[in-house]
Amino acid sequence: MVATPNVIWELDSLFRINVLGKTSFTVAVRAGMPSADTFVGF
Fold first, then answer.
1. What tens-digit pLDDT sequence spans the chain (42 residues)?
2. Phi, psi values for residue 3, rounded to 5°
3. What predicted TM-score, i.e. pTM, was given to this entire model?
């Protein structure tokens, strides 16, 4: 695989979106279920 700037940028974007999605999901779960703090830990 040739790591061109474009490929690196795409991977970086996907990584950021994935992290942001997981963070949003965690926040939503914690907001909906306060007891989720015990088993949803990052």
1. 677 889 989 999 999 999 998 988 888 877 777 665 555 554
2. -85, 80
3. 0.47
